[in-house]
Amino acid sequence: MFVDTPTFVIELLYPRDANYAINHRFLKTQAGAIQTSIYNVLELCGIASYRLTQDELDKLFYGFEERFHTSVLYPQVADDIPSTSFIDDWIAQIYACITRRMHFSDALILEIAESYGLSTLITWNTKHFEGKTAMRVLTPEEYLVERGLIG
Fold first, then answer.
1. Is the residue at 49 inside a domain?
2. Could you give the CA distance from residue 86 to residue 23 in angstroms, rounded to a whole number?
3. In this structure, is the dihedral angle defined by the CA atoms of residues 29, 127, 113 and 66, taken in order, positive or negative?
4. Residue 11 domain-assigned?
């Protein structure tokens, strides 16, 4: 499953958030099964940069996978494709996502999730993705309820 940035933001920066307990439970029960993109990691670091020291930010960036028990996905590039062709194709794919009426940052994230053939996207911002992808779009709470992990 692919997890969007707000889940990590709540866990890291907002322990008093109304959704923190559910969010935390989701991350704990799904540890090891979560995937996100390098763009999500960078987005989280950008948000956190206003509240963390440089050392804390470095630890977050370089230790993200270990801290959140997740895999970070990168844009897929075939070895035999020239970089200019990759950039052209990548831009076309991002633009195709944008034409579905989404912001650039959401398009970056969705392009990676779809390119890996993932079937479920977990986000607190479901309205950003619903009806714009074939992926199932659920909140962490909806996912836990569906799996019978909360009532």
1. yes
2. 36
3. negative
4. yes
Amino acid, res. 68: F
The total number of structural domains in the chain stands at 1
Report pLDDT digits (tens) over 11-32: 999 999 999 999 999 999 999 9
Residue 54 lies in a domain: yes
In Å, how far are 9, 49, 62, 76, 121 from 35, measured between CA atoms? Answer: 15, 22, 16, 15, 10
Residue 151 in domain: no
Structural domain of 84: 2-146
pTM, to two decimals: 0.89
In terms of Cα–Cα distance, which of 54, 39, 53, 29 is closest to 5?
39
Structure-token pair, residue 115: 């390119």
**Two tokens, residue 73:** 């996905």
Cα–Cα distance measured from residue 82 to residue 64, given in angstroms and rounded to the nearest whole number: 30
Distance CA 88, CA 35 (A): 25
Question: Mean pLDDT across the stretch 124-146?
Answer: 97
Q: The CATH number of the domain where 57 resides is what?
A: 3.40.50.1010
Split at pLDDT 50, 70, 90, the class of 36 is very high
